[in-house]
């Protein structure tokens, strides 16, 4: 293909693409004719620079809010669920260590090292409670 034919083809393609983009922008900025109360709404374009800039800024603001609702809320929810699960695992590790200590010294309940067993048992109950409630909170937050 020679350079002249290539230039013509490229020019036609660029013009058609520009027209398609303009049509897409016009279609995106016009209101939905099917939405609303069923009455026809006549839209007249306002070409004044101040109003147009204001409507663009309002559209960007509205789009940013919708983006936040669509992306950040689910991400924050998932992060909260993950945080509760992580703290539940952390507390579970402490509860498991206390459980091992209780099992290791189980014969000393009334004897000479009985205080150590009671402290370990208290830790087991406390951190076990923290573990269970953390996972319950994660489950509750995940359902919202």
Per DSSP, what share of the residues sits in E-state strands of 2 or more residues?
Answer: under 5%
Low-confidence stretches: none
- Share of helical residues: over 70%
Number of strands: 0
Could you characterize the architecture of this molecule?
With 144 residues, this protein is mostly helical. The protein is built from three helices and no strands. The chain has helices at 3-29, 49-104, 114-143.
Give a quick set of tags describing it.
0% strand; 78% helix; 144 residues; mainly alpha
Describe the protein's topology.
Elements: H1 3-29, H2 49-104, H3 114-143
Helix pairs in contact: 2-3
What is shown here, in short?
This protein is mainly α. 78% of the residues lie in helices and 0% in strands.
């Amino acid at each position: 293909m020679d350079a002249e034919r290539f230039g013509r083809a490229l020019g036609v393609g660029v013009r058609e693409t520009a027209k398609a983009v303009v049509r897409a922008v016009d279609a995106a900025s016009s209101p939905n004719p099917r939405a609303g109360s069923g009455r026809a709404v006549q839209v007249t374009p306002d070409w004044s620079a101040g109003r147009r800039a204001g409507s663009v800024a309002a559209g960007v603001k509205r789009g940013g809010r919708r983006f936040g609702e669509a992306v950040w809320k689910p991400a924050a929810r998932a992060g909260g669920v993950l945080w509760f699960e992580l703290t539940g695992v952390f507390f579970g590790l402490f509860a498991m260590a206390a459980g091992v200590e209780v099992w290791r010294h189980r014969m000393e309940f009334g004897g000479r090292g009985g205080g150590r067993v009671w402290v370990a048992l208290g830790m087991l109950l406390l951190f076990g409670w923290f573990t269970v409630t953390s996972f319950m909170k994660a489950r509750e937050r995940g359902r919202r």
